From TrEMBL:
<keyword id="KW-0479">Metal-binding</keyword>
<keyword id="KW-0808">Transferase</keyword>
<protein>
    <submittedName>
        <fullName>3-keto-5-aminohexanoate cleavage enzyme</fullName>
        <ecNumber>2.3.1.247</ecNumber>
    </submittedName>
</protein>
<dbReference type="Pfam" id="PF05853">
    <property type="entry name" value="BKACE"/>
</dbReference>
<keyword id="KW-0012">Acyltransferase</keyword>
<dbReference type="InterPro" id="IPR008567">
    <property type="entry name" value="BKACE"/>
</dbReference>
<dbReference type="GO" id="GO:0046872">
    <property type="term" value="F:metal ion binding"/>
</dbReference>
<dbReference type="InterPro" id="IPR013785">
    <property type="entry name" value="Aldolase_TIM"/>
</dbReference>
<keyword id="KW-0862">Zinc</keyword>
<dbReference type="GO" id="GO:0043720">
    <property type="term" value="F:3-keto-5-aminohexanoate cleavage activity"/>
</dbReference>
Amino acid sequence: MEKLIITAAICGAEVLKEHNPAVPYTVEECVREAKAAYDAGASIIHLHVRYDDGTPTQDKNRFKAVMDAIYKVCPDVIIQPSTGGAVGMTDDERLQPTELNPEMATLDCGTLNFGGDEVFMNTENTIKYFAERMNERGIKPELEVFDKSMIDMALRLHKKGFIKTPMHFDFVMGVNGGISGELRDFVFLRGSIPADATYTVAGIGRYEFPLAAAAIIDGGHVRVGFEDNVFVSKGVLAKSNGELVEKVVRIAREFGREIATPAEARQILGLKAKV
């Protein structure tokens, strides 16, 4: 079985310090949280950025400042910027971090009703546009899927040449408007991707650790972090993203699964070795 790649989604665009005081906004706070996750065993940092007041932004200059600062303390880590941004942002606004030529970036594969009047829009043309940009720049997309239909969209666009193999999926499970985080639904998504594809599971809220265990057993990979869940156990706030990663590492050890280094994660995902 391959070693386990752990991704830490350290801040997201929606979670606030009101939910957990350790949620990072500033450059320094993002570095603190990335370093804690990296030291605990994360090889990928899934990155949104904020202004110092917590406002989400896709400003490429803010991304560059945060990424450069993280690389200073975690020089070999894989940084995976989000192109999801926040609800209401334009396509070109969301794509700004791709101008920095990261190794990976997220590619959302469908539209989702987040709740109330909030709709996270990803039309077929948007998905094609994002895929073309990533192909041009040699960026590996992590295919963010919130439901089975989004896997189907990714597979259709692969047949049309927009998405290349081997594909890497992220099953985001338990989001309002998307598929639930039940084991039944994990098995459904897992059985719907190609045999040569890799996947990560991001369980939202209470689904985070049960789905992490399922992915560990199955040979998949795991995402944890404040973007998805601010609790280390029921009612107990996590002190850092590192504490969430540490819990995944403990679960993996119970099942005899070794943790991938960034270099090993690059090999598993087909990324170029970092020099």
